[in-house]
């Protein structure tokens, strides 16, 4: 039995020892906002927060989350509301197909705790593990810089 909190809510799941965190989130819990792209820890689409740290959930066993706080895109804003980071992405046209976007947003949230400065070079470096096939990154970097800048102000 695995017990952890997802977006603040306690969860108990029966899972095999080899189950991945991404599968636990998507299948039994139905949190399909955490996307599955490469499944080999390369694309970052599956990024979630594990005790506040950004992790690639395809590269984490579900049992490694025992007792932890997991944050997914579904917990970013209250239903019907937008998080400031989402609004920044909208303003800067930082998404097209949107497949990478949940992972980008979760990675950006962790940047604040990591003290990443709101500067393009630093944000690009911090985003090195999150790939986007559509946007060319300009809008994503601009949105994250704007949000980090506002948070640091
Ligand atoms: S699906 Fe996890 S990094 Fe690509
Ligand atoms: S918006 Fe399509 S992969 Fe990033």
From TrEMBL:
InterPro entries: 2Fe-2S-bd, 2Fe-2S-bd_dom_sf, 2Fe-2S_ferredoxin-like_sf, 2Fe-2S_ferredoxin-type, 2Fe2S_fd_BS, Beta-grasp_dom_sf, Diverse_Oxidoreductases. One of its GO terms (molecular function) is oxidoreductase activity. Residues 1-76 form the 2Fe-2S ferredoxin-type domain. Pfam families: Fer2, Fer2_2. Keywords: 2Fe-2S, Iron, Iron-sulfur, Metal-binding, Oxidoreductase. Gene3D superfamilies: 3.10.20.30, [2Fe-2S]-binding domain (1.10.150.120). PANTHER family: OXIDOREDUCTASE WITH IRON-SULFUR SUBUNIT (PTHR44379). This is (2Fe-2S)-binding protein. The lineage of its organism: Bacteria, Pseudomonadati, Pseudomonadota, Betaproteobacteria, Burkholderiales.
């Amino acid at each position: 039995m695995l017990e952890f909190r997802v977006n603040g809510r306690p969860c108990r799941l029966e899972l095999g020892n080899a189950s991945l965190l991404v599968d636990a989130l998507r299948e039994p819990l139905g949190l399909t906002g955490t996307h599955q792209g490469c499944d080999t820890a390369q694309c970052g689409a599956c990024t979630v927060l594990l005790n506040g740290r950004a992790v690639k959930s395809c590269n984490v066993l579900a049992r490694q989350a025992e007792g932890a706080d997991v944050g997914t895109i579904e917990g970013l804003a209250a239903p019907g509301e937008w998080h400031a980071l989402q609004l920044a992405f909208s303003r800067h046209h930082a998404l097209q197909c949107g497949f990478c976007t949940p992972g980008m947003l979760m990675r950006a949230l962790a940047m604040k705790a990591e003290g990443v400065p709101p500067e393009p070079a630093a944000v690009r470096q911090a985003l090195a593990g999150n790939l986007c096939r559509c946007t060319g990154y300009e809008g994503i970097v601009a949105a994250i810089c704007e949000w980090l800048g506002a948070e640091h102000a």
